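Q: For a teaching session next week I want to show students how multiple molecules come together into a single three-dimensional assembly. I've collected the sequence lines for a complex. Could you give me the predicted structure tokens for the whole thing so I can convert them for display?
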Amino acid sequence: MSIKLSDKAEARLKEKIALYPDPKSAAMWALYIAQEELGRLDDRAVEWTAERLNLSPVNVQELITFYTMYHKEQLGKYHVQICRTLSCAVRGSTKLTECVRKRFGTKPGQPSADGMWSYEEVECLGSCGTAPMCQINDHFFENLTPQKLTEILDRIEKEKPDLKLSTIDDRMGEGLKGYPKSQII
Amino acid sequence: MTAHHSILLKNIRQPDQHTLAGAESRGAYSTIKKALQIDPLKVIEEVKTSGIRGRGGAGFPTGMKWSFVPRNSGKPVYLINNADESEPGTFKDRLLLENDPHLIIEGMLIAAWALQSNWSCIYIRGEYGYPFSRAKKAIEEAYAKGYLGKNIFGSNFNHDMVIHRGAGAYICGEESALMESLEGKKGQPRMKPPFPAVSGLYQCPTVINNVETLANMPFIIENGGKAFLSIGVEKSSGTKLVSASGHINKPGVYEIDMGYPMKRFIEEECGGIWQGRKLKAVIPGGSSVNIMTAPEIEKVNMDYESLRLAGSSLGCAGFMVLDETTDMVEAVLNLAHFYAHESCGQCTPCREGGHWIEKIFTRISRGQGLPGDIPLIENVCAQIGGHTICAFGDTMILPYLSIIKKFPEEFKERIGEAIRGQVKPREYLNVVYDGAH
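A: Of course. Below is the structure for the complete assembly, covering every listed component.
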């Protein structure tokens, strides 16, 4: 049985394959594309990727478990990732983790009952100068305090903005309207 | 404040610098146009003359790296721009990718011409969504204007550039792991030799340079290697982007002339230690280097040689500052969790040892330390260093060993409390989950 994704996703993968000296290089794109379409990387995603790139399914499984940005399980619609590494930690990242832990009442990586939220602590996101910070889907929110983070989460709950970088059309979601991008210089 | 040369951040505050029109109005792509008239080998000579050393952390001379690429192997030559920036404390490349991507593209084109490479790739870490979209847009603009693609500036030189998105793995910043990842595999480092210059991506000659290294190329070719060499100090020429973070008043990216005194950098550029506190320690090169105490930094300068002689390393200049209130047991546990999580799992000493060390630091932190824990950590570290394929194992033990050596009383105190059964309440810097990673 052959799996087929949307025409747009199929076309997108073909486009990516053409960019590289060898089609295998597009494996990571294939997984991003499948994850965006299917919501998570289940057996269908593995089969699709393996078939399109002539890889064995076990190779594809390896990639999914190796790289932290691929998920086998469904996450919340908004996935809050709190940076926990040293520069963020010394400027108060545990307070942010406490804040989301209390708010969602779930374990790290587990979606909330309404499917809206999930959270986890992650390693250095390259925003040490604007610490502490978090990443929600593909957007960074920097120079945070628990109060600021709470305001951001309240607004997301209400406005439901697009915070994703679409790998199907390389388009960055519009973000939280009017929320200033942090200056790292 | 001291006036430093501004090679990389010259236009960084211009609001339209990320666009082709904005960058071009300030001279972008004028150097590659000239470079295409110069013999590629002369370009390499110029880079050698400049003395520039790799800005990704290892500090290997860039011109020499380029000269290792065989000229007539009959195989294509690949150029990879390492934008995987994942070393804790480092965020300088992100600034360039977001605000001046055309500087990077021009630098890559110069390198590509020197190496006669027709294909290059920016490998950017997956978490950098916004920098990805900025750099991607810049590549598209460059293609539309004919600065990438076929017959660039009428020179018959063709070059295609791709931006590749990683998916969350610290180890992919290691060049051979990066190539594995780019070949659609797990990012696990390769044995060396062969070196990438001979057998890299898909067994073809490959050069991998850091974003900042490549962004220096337009200046070097425009002004000559000697002009670059005249900046900084003898064996560390040019400027360095420093990502300053931690307990300072003005965290951010600073461009300093190599050889600048560290104490002055903290006091002037970084605005001093926050909240009127005193300095306790500095991790000067990104987390994988030896920590330095406040007395140790008094007279040290920021360049490759000075920091090496002082027993640490400039690395990629991920400059983390810790004030007097920092609990060093918690600080080292934080890093131990990072390395345990990020080990690629290929070599047993690193995969297993990393987790053991985290466990031991965790129990010291949580008031359950045992009398022999410090020698035990030293023993495990000795079995990791030098016993792994890549430098991950060798460097992860540097912060562990230097922190326990330079702040022994804090570890003694915590273990002592545990032995006496009188553990003081503390504010923890780390959330410790029940054995889960």
